[in-house]
Amino acid sequence: MTIVNTDYITGKELETLGLVKGSIVQSKNIGRDLMSSFKTIVGGEIKSYSDMLNEARAIATKRMVEEAEAMGADAVVNARYSSSAVMQGAAEVIVYGTAVKFK
Questions:
Q1: How far is the C-alpha of 12 from the C-alpha of 26, rounded, in Å?
Q2: pLDDT (mean) for 37-50
Q3: Position 46 pLDDT exceeds 80
Q4: CATH, residue 29
Q5: According to the model, what pLDDT value does residue 79 have?
Q6: Cα separation of 95 and 64, whole Å?
Q7: 51-101, pLDDT tens digit by residue?
Q8: 74: part of which helix (H) or strand (E)?
Q9: Are 87 and 25 in contact (CB under 8 A)?
Q10: How far apart, in whole angstroms, are the C-alpha atoms of residue 92 and residue 56?
Q11: Cβ contact 96:30 at 8 Å
């Protein structure tokens, strides 16, 4: 499955199938939360959170691709990622785009 953040794919004529999305709500665990609070004192990357969000993006992308494949899509164009806090200690990661079929 081709996924791009542009509204076209060079050399391809596209038929729009519709909006597709994938999302996940991921929460922190007490160990990550405790260790990250120490890290904020000295600064730098909080690797456990980076890893958690990378995993969440991968799961959300997989869910979007599954939805696109169910529609018979060959690709997803104009893909966008977003995240937001849904409650204390939990964040949603969503990816969305337009499912297309090659003509």
A1: 36
A2: 68
A3: no
A4: 3.30.110.70
A5: 98
A6: 7
A7: 888 999 999 999 999 999 999 999 999 999 999 988 877 889 999 999 999
A8: none
A9: no
A10: 8
A11: no
Average pLDDT, the chain: 88
Q: How many domains does the chain have?
A: 1
92 lies in which domain range?
Answer: 2-102
**Helix, coil or strand: residue 19:** strand
What confidence score (pLDDT) does residue 52 get? 85
Looking only at the bridges linking them, the beta strands covering 14-27 and 75-87 are: unpaired
Which of 30 and 1 is assigned the larger pLDDT? 1
Residue 23 forms beta bridges with which residues?
Answer: 94
Instruction: Name the residue type at position 53.
Output: L
Which is nearest to 20 in space by CA: 34, 38, 39, 3?
3
pTM comes to 0.84
Mention every residue, 6+ apart, whose C-beta is less than 8 A from residue 30. Answer: none
Q: Phi then psi for 67, rounded to 5 degrees?
A: -65, -40
Distances (CA, A) of 22 to 13, 79, 86, 103: 25, 11, 16, 25
